[in-house]
Amino acid sequence: MVKKLPKTDVVVVGVGWGGGIIAAELTKQGLNVVGLERGQERHTEDYYMVHDELRYAVRYELMQDLSKETLTFRSNSKMRALPMRQYGSFLMGTGLGGAGIHWNGQTFRFLPYDFNIRSATIERYGKNKIPADMTIQDWGITYDEIEPYYDKFEKMAGISGEENPLGGKRSSAYPTKPMKHSPPMKMFKKATEKLNYHPYTIPSANLSESYENPDGIARAACQYCGYCERFGCEYGAKADPVVTVIPVAAKTGKFDLRTHSWVRRVLHNGEKATGVLYTDVTTGEEIEQPADVVVLTSYVFNNARLLLNSKIGQPYDPSTGEGVIGKNYAYQVVKGGATGYFDDQKFNNFAGAGALGMVIDDFNGDNFDHSNLDFIHGGYLSLTQTGLRPIQNNPIPSDSPTWGKEFKKNSLNYINKTLSIGAMGASLPYKQHYLDLDPTYTDTFGDPIIRMTYDFKEQDRQLAKFTAKKSSEIMKEMGASKVDSMKELGPYNITTYQSTHNTGGVIMGADSKTSAVNNYLQMWDMDNLFVVGASAFPHNGGYNPTDTVGALAYRAAEGIIKYSKNGEKLA
Amino acid sequence: MISLTDDKKKKQSESERLSRRKFIKNSGYAVGGLAVGGVIGSVIPWDTEDKAAPQTNNKNNKTTNFTHALMNFSQAEFKMVDAATERIFPEDENGPGAKELGVAYYIDHQLAGSYGLNARDYMQPPFFNGEKVQGYQGRLRRKEIFRIALKEMQSYSQKKYKKGFISLTEEEQNAILTDFAEDKVKLMTVSPSGFFDLLRSMTLEGVYSDPLYSGNKDMDGWRMRNYPGNQMSYTDIIEEDFKDIPPKSLREHM
Ligand SMILES: Cc1cc2nc3c(=O)[nH]c(=O)nc-3n(C[C@H](O)[C@H](O)[C@H](O)COP(=O)(O)OP(=O)(O)OC[C@H]3O[C@@H](n4cnc5c(N)ncnc54)[C@H](O)[C@@H]3O)c2cc1C
Ligand code: SF4
């Protein structure tokens, strides 16, 4: 028997950055919001023993429990998809705050080019520059239109930074000054300036100084503690939903947050969503929560999965290219970096912060000429200092043994003498890359899990080679005694960590035939259903996604408020 | 009258108060004048009485390590793991190897718990052989993999050298491990390189995880590579050149 609860104005599925922002903005406007989060409650107090690499970074304390839910993966449709049984390539968040708890906090805006990638590419290079099966499309929103929402997210989170000399125009400066510069960052700055590039400090959600945001939330400065990526911040210095937007929602008295609530279906009558069905995982009870508006903020995979399992929208069909749910899954191309070994210099590699570093955008987007290159777009190149913890960081020259006497000697010698330049390569969508429901494997409740069909393409291989070459040149200019860099990208492999920057599946656009949601993230096929997150990205840019996720969430919140007043389609 | 233990306790809590004050000062300076009670307030140790002894690393002061007993391996298995991990991370002029650091105890304890049972991995059937890019697809759990692979290693060693693994010379042990690492042994039960990779990664975990897990004895794993362990703040040194900071463990927070 399903227990039916009284109706609410809005129900939000998943309470990470997306869900937290929506809840704060809507409750401030007087709407009643129920937040359903499958994981547990979280507090800053939980992180008293957080400087534990094994527990948090290696055993994934804060991430989704794969024994209950995972996804399946295959490189192409001829292969049998098999479950991702253990973590590797990316790490899904769970619990209050979602992955926003254990992110690094590198907070970049996408380039103006990203939002009209198709028309801009054709305009500069002609139609033939785009491979026939590459399905890039304009986003249905321009950089200028999304700019105010970026500004809003950055002020809420207190982003520390300085202007990107090659980025889009900003309506105001970053709310806090850039992070401190470590000696390796200074070396990167000097080398890239010498090469006539345009370095700037990575925009950071680890606060450079104490800050009070427009909602009246005050937070302390980052301590460069070196336990940031994959960890929660015991100081509340790293912007996460639990120390920013969730308390704002709670204070209104209009936010009914329910943790341990696993949403399994969006309920609907074909035209409108009527609410959601969820299981209270502590009791096993099935509960119906009716609502006027339903908002999915359950990350890329579950946003797509909930729609498919609820039979909402037309599933994407790769053989015809028709349908939209699951379309344009994209990822990131990060392996094209370089590592430098310095025989006569030592660095405090153990110290750092998740978003501490320097970066250049000279090879990102269309900031450079692609006429004679076999790829489009690019990525940023950065030197970060995030704190190299000892289990996971044992850098050794590429031709040396990986265990035994020689390994020990090299790894002890090089740990504080090694620096890396990383590339955050853009990932563009293809007709053959998509998400659908797996026909065989299920989650802990017996619901089908997501099946991912994805591999690297020639575009990615060329892009990675290019960024690896540029990274090596910078590393040499920095004075490394020996430089290693990626030779060949190889096939996409789900077992090694790359980034948790999955995108697409419920993409936005200007046309209901080729996109699932409009530029308010409102479903074309169902007015009162909004789908928020990187699932809306038609491709992935050469940056980390969360500034754009946050900006789109603020935009969606504005749309939901409008919609709940007049009940009309917003675009 | 004040007893000796009381006196010691007093001294101890005094030194803790000092270190805590240092911590508060550290973060207080960063907090500036802002009222952020809910955040910083919560992580400052709240109770100064009745705490564990401050951290010392007095090598001559040998106390019994009660965690050095077995909850998973047999004695024979333990000895093999002790020997094999020492080959992966051997003692040398830089300092102790896996054996001395307690790595085999670390592995024993991990295999007995949720990691050994793959409690947070997706272990639902059906099982099929997959491509390399799809990752581990076996039905065996880590605890079982170790049990089977150690048996295989022992019989391979008997076959190759007519001796058990722990009786081999270092070179011979290295040769056996190399054959596993490079899949030169043909087995029907487990993947030799899969086992070797697991053994190698667990060795590094045992060398470098917080001593709370029974490896990294006396934080010597960290000391060898100038890793400071659990420090509350690097604000003062982040702009500076390399600094050697004596390590602290999570025990510091008790
Ligand atoms: C280690 C790491 C480092 C990162 N670093 C950066 C970085 O430096 N910069 C950057 O821009 N991005 C970074 N990211 C990515 C960033 O964390 C995400 O973009 C962001 O957190 C996404 O927010 P979200 O709200 O869309 O999803 P999430 O944070 O994933 O939140 C989704 C929530 O929904 C819940 N949920 C899912 N399904 C259900 C269901 N059926 N019922 C109920 N609840 C459900 C989940 O439990 C979760 O809490 C990083 C990610 C990781 C893992
Ligand atoms: S590095 Fe800074 S922001 Fe990150 S966890 Fe440590 S104190 Fe917090």
From TrEMBL, chain A:
InterPro entries: FAD/NAD-bd_sf, GMC_OxRtase_C
Keywords from the named record: FAD, Flavoprotein, Oxidoreductase
Domain Glucose-methanol-choline oxidoreductase C-terminal: 434-553
Keyword Flavoprotein carried by entry: yes
Pfam families: GMC_oxred_C
Listed GO MF terms: oxidoreductase activity, acting on CH-OH group of donors
Stated family: Belongs to the GMC oxidoreductase family.
Name the UniProt record assigns to this protein: GMC family oxidoreductase
